[in-house]
Amino acid sequence: MTPSPPPGCPAHTTTAGLTSLSEATAAAAPHSVYRQLREEWGDVARVELEPGVDAWLVMGYQELLTITRNEQLYSRDARNWGDFQTGVVAPDSGLGPMMFWRANVIGADGEEHRRLRRPLDDGVSSIDQRRMRRSVQAMCSDLIANFAGRGSADLVAEYAQSIPLLAIAALFGLDMDERYELLAGLAALFGSADDSQAGNRRFEEILADVMNARRNTPTDDLTSGFIAHPDLRDDPEILQSMVVMISAGQETTTIWIARTLELMLTDPRFAGRMRGGRLGIDDALDEVLWRHPPMTHMPARYALRDTELGGRRIRKGDALILGLAAANGDPRIHDGDPSAEPGNRSHLAWSAGPHACPARIPARLITRTAVETALHRLADIHLKVPAEEIALRPSPWTRCPVSLPVTFTPSLSPAPTRST
Q: How far apart are CA 60 and CA 330, in angstroms?
């Protein structure tokens, strides 16, 4: 076991020389960064979250399974974060919306987590998948109709980021204006920059207004379902359940759509599928989850006592970040051969253990429908720029393309209908 600096050592109060998690996320070749970190640290590497704030990035497949499955040692409750308890992390830190404790399913362990998880599981199981597929297909067609005659589009701004928002927010009964106003708040939240807390406040204000309206006039949407659910005890728990389901679903599904379209438009193995080739949309969906999981790095677990993980001494209160992309590329379980990825769903894109994503099925339905509709409706579609020139939105957590500019043969499309 490689020793870590003892408590009180100056190494605990500086992050000078550490790899920045934001820079690792933004790197053109993040797996090269992970390789360098493994050479220096092994499968559990100390990284910088923001100046003066560090964490452990867990890159080993087995190590990640260990921390996600052992709630007795690695807590999801951020009130156990040592740097927060001691004031190293400022109350107005941009890390707050993603890492500070909230009264929701993400911040709970054990029976409390299971209680707060049941409303989400019940909400997902109540979704009529056939109805959702038809609704998403109509939304996609409407969006495409807005630019089909132009012969060019940005498939992030004009397509990918709108689809999950329209689909998921519709389940909660948000109207069109409210859905689009949520986008700015969500972008700030996931960016973990100076505007993240303001974006988070506005996001919650919109959802609180919807919640209060449904209390007076219940409908058959998920907001009303959460209000009536016996496992949600008060308004903060109802609101935070809405926050979790909408925010997680929006950002991750946007990235999954964009990355799958990018792969199918740039990789000959998939581009050929549109002309009768071997690999298809489901293969591309799986490969993206292996290589570019929608959550690149997921916060966080907090050690409840001093322990050891991957040869590193972990102190009580240390934050551990789930390196989902790095773990998928762990050379002990993955040799880097992309031919092994299609159809193989042993990746960790959805995390693992009690906190694994509950909405994998609807997320795949939305993403597959969006990709299939775009490829079917846009003839002779091509990416306008080389894949390596696609910029990413700044974030320590996700690698969402800023844009996906494409050209295609213009076509006359029916006027769009108002999606609901």
A: 6
